[in-house]
Structures are given as C-alpha cells and as structure tokens.
Design goal:
Layout lengths: L3 H21 L2 H18 L2 H4 L4 H23 L1 H7 L1 H5 L3 H4 L2 H9 L5 H23 L6 H91 L4 H25 L16 H13 L4 E6 L8 H21 L5 E7 L3 E8 L13 H12 L3 E6 L5 E8 L23 H4 L2 H31 L1
Parallel strand pairs: 1-2
Antiparallel strand pairs: 2-3, 3-5, 4-5
Helix pairs in contact: 2-4, 4-5, 4-8, 5-8, 5-9, 8-10, 9-10, 10-11, 10-16, 12-13, 13-14
Length: 462
C-alpha cells in the first residue's frame, strides 16, 4: 500500500491537470470534439445492428468503439499518448472502429514535433500493435507468416501512411507561420526606415527655413519697429500702418517657428504662447487688426468658446479667419465684411463673407492659400467651400469637427499598426498548395475507403 502511494499521487495530479486543461478549452472546440467523437462512436457501433455477432464479440465491439471515440478529443491535447493508445483498436476485432484510425493518427501526427519524436512514437505503436495482433490472431487464424503479412499491410495503411501525411502537413504549418512573421517584420522595418527618412528630411527642411526665412523675417520686424518709431515722430498718420507692419512681421515669425515645430515633430501640447490660438479672444484680435487696417468687419460668435476643443480644430479656425481677412485686404479692402463662427457640440462652422469690391480695388491672386486650407480641413474630416456670392462678394466657409479622428501627420511609431495582419496569407495559400495539401489529406482516408470496399465485397460474396 505504501509503494502504491506515489503512483496514486501522480495519477491524481495527471487527472487534475487533464480536467483543468479541458476547462480551459474554448466551448467551440469542446463542441467539435463531441461531434467528432459521436461520429466515430456511430461508425464503430455499425456491426452491432448489421452483423450477427456472438455475444462475446458484441462486448468487444462496443468497448473498442467507445475507446476509439475517446481518442478523438485526446489526439489534440496528448498526441503521443493517443498514438500509443490506438493499439487495442488496431488489433481488436472491430474493423469499423479500426477504419477511423487513419484519421486519428493523421490528427495526432500533425501535432508531434520534432520528427524524431514522431517516428519513435510510431515505432512504439507498431510494436504494440504487432504484439496485440499476435495475441489476438495466433489463437484463431492460420500460420505465423499469414498473420505477419496481414499486419504489415494494415500497419502501412492504418499507421505509417497517415503518420507520414500528418508529419508533412504538421511541419509545413510552423514554417508558413515563420515566413509570415519574417515578412511582417521586414514590412515593419521598411515602414520605420521610411518614417525615419521622412523625419530627417523634415528636420533638414526646417533647418533651411529657419536659417533663411527666419533671418529675413527678423530683419523685417526690426526695421518695421524702427519705421514705427520714426513715423510716430515725423508722420503720425502712418504710425498705425507701421505698427501693423511690425505686428504682422512678428506674427509671421511666430507662425514660422510653429511650422518648424510641426516639421520637427513637436507635440501640439507644447505650443507655448500659441495655446490660445483659435479661441474667441484670438479671433477678436484678428478682427481688431483688420479694423485697425481700415477694413469694415464685424464678428458674430455663437456658442461656447473653443478653449477645450482639439488644438488642430482651433488652429484650423484661426487659419480660415486669417485667410479670409487676408483675401479681403488684397481684393476688397473697401467692402463690408462679416466673420461668423458657430460652435456646436461636434462641429465648428466658420464663415468669412464680404460684399462686392469697388472697381479697380482687386489685386491678382493665386488661390494657393485657399487650396492649402481645403487640404488642411479635409485631413481633419471637415468640409471647405470658397467662391463668389450672388451679390458679387466672396465667401470662405468651413465646417470643422471639434474632435477630429487620427492625427494631421503620420507619427513613425504608429506606422507599423497599418500593416495587414497576415502579410503572407495570400501567398501561402495559393491554389497549387491548397490542392497539394488536399491530396495529402486524402491519402489518410485511402485506407478507410479500401477497407470499406473490401468489407462490402466480402458481405456480398457471403
């Protein structure tokens, strides 16, 4: 009793582990196992109502059918043990239960790796099959040579051939998965390399713009300040225009630094003094600057302020109002202008509309600013419209989401998420490979078909 205690403990722990593994199995896999096991049991019990069997054989037929059915769920979890456990069904008197052994062997062989372990399991199973075949057949059949020949044919059809087919398909699956992973890795590396190249090129462009435009704008701002001081003393009527020139140059320099920050990958939250851009005070300041320059412009703001809106939305609002007022300065400086901003829960509507301009007051334009606005707002998921009004004026209107989806520039760290989940799926599952795998799978069913045909012929002759 003491010697059996460690063996009982091992058996109990093995049973507990098996129960836990079954509980962790998804429900759909349990349903699959139950359906397949029921089919195997039904096939194994065919001789009971069809053939007139002795009472002793009926017990063997039922026992072997139940045993074969129990091997179906086991072949997915314990393939080596399942392969060894097919020996009683192989050597037993239930031919119908043995007819499903190629399928069980095929399923178990696909999950045994490496190949040396598989063929050692096949060899051990063959030895067990041969020993049980001798025990069953020598007492009732003819000579030893006849038993060995029948065993060799059965072992080849029911054991070796299905195991070989399962090994081929089982070893192909991890290789395909490895190719998929390598291809995905290479695509990710390629995207990261391209993103790095773009970031470096943006940094180069930002450096060039800083060295060239930044220096020029700084000089313009300095000279505009000197001009403002001189105009205040010598020509007070030009003082406001000189001040506008200085503040415009200063704003252009600030916006250039902002663009350089975007090119260098600066975060929207690190904009510093521009955090108020696009809010109501900012738009009122733009309107006040236009009034100071002599434009008859009114602002009508409905809804809440944009303090809590997305920075990209506020920036777009600022761009639309500024571009609209800039166009009024260029083309219709004497026309009455209205700036309308309506803030809703999910969108911001911006309109800059002016009346007809006086003859000869228009300057030629390239519409490049309007095209840039259209592209910028489209990236945010909004809509943009610009064009003449029926009254002879001009309208610039935009509808911008308060919380745009995504980002207005591609972050290198997010680029790999755009990869397809299975980059090699189309290549790995080409029709020739599918047909080849199907032919190998049919080889595993060949013993079943041959055995059923032999049984039908034997029943017809008898």
């Amino acid at each position: 009793m003491v010697a059996l205690s460690p063996l009982a403990e091992r058996l109990g722990s093995a049973v507990s582990a098996a129960v836990e593994q079954v509980r962790a199995t998804p429900r759909r896999l349990l349903v699959r196992d139950a359906v397949l096991a029921s089919l195997v049991l039904a096939v194994g019990l065919v001789p009971v109502p069809v053939l007139l069997l002795p009472a002793a054989h009926i017990g063997w037929v039922i026992a072997l059918a139940c045993w074969a059915a129990s091997l179906v769920p086991a072949c997915w979890r314990w393939p080596v043990a399942t392969l060894l456990a097919t020996a009683p069904v192989f050597a037993g008197p239930n031919f119908w239960a043995a007819a499903v052994l190629p399928v069980i062997t095929f399923a178990a062989a696909r999950r045994i790796a490496p190949a040396r372990r598989l063929w050692l399991a096949v060899l051990a199973t063959a030895v067990a099959d041969f020993a049980l075949t001798l025990a069953f057949d020598l007492s009732s059949a003819g000579g030893f040579g006849e038993v060995v020949a029948a065993y060799a044919v059965s072992a080849m059809l029911l054991l070796v051939l299905p195991a070989a087919v399962g090994a081929i398909l089982g070893h192909r699956r991890p290789r395909v998965r490895l190719l998929q992973e390598r291809n995905e890795y290479l695509e990710r590396a390629q995207l990261l390399t391209a993103a790095k190249a773009r970031v470096e090129e943006r940094g180069h462009i930002a450096g060039e713009m800083h060295d060239m435009l930044g220096h020029r704008l700084s000089l313009i701002s300095i000279h505009a300040g000197a001009l403002e001081l001189s105009a205040a003393k010598n020509a007070p009527e030009l003082s406001s225009q000189a001040e506008l020139l200085r503040t415009t140059a200063s704003s252009a320099l600030t916006e250039l630094r902002e663009i350089l920050g975007v090119l260098r990958g600066a975060e929207e939250s690190d904009l510093g003094p521009d955090d108020r851009i696009g809010t109501r005070p900012d738009v009122e300041e733009l309107v006040a600057e236009s009034r100071a320059a002599g434009i008859d412009v009114d602002l009508r703001w409905t809804g809440a302020d944009l303090d809590s809106a997305d920075p990209r939305t506020r920036r777009a609002v600022h761009r639309v109002v500024r571009e609209g007022l800039t166009n009024v300065h260029k083309h219709a400086s004497s026309a009455r202008t209205g700036v309308e901003i309506g803030v809703e829960s999910d969108r911001v509507h911006v309109r800059v509309v002016n009346g007809p301009a006086q003859a000869g007051g228009r300057l030629p334009g390239t519409r490049s600013g309007l095209v840039g606005l259209d592209e910028r707002i489209a990236l945010l998921g909004g809509s943009f419209h610009s064009g003449p009004t029926p009254e002879g004026g001009f309208l610039v209107a935009a509808a911008i989401p308060t919380r745009p989806a995504g980002t207005d520039r591609a972050e290198p760290s997010a680029l790999p998420d755009q990869l397809p989940p299975e980059p090699l799926a189309a290549e790995a599952l080409t029709w020739p490979r599918v047909l080849g795998a199907g032919c190998l799978g049919l080889l595993a069913l060949l013993p079943v078909i041959i055995g059923l045909a032999v049984l039908v012929v034997a029943l017809a002759i008898s």
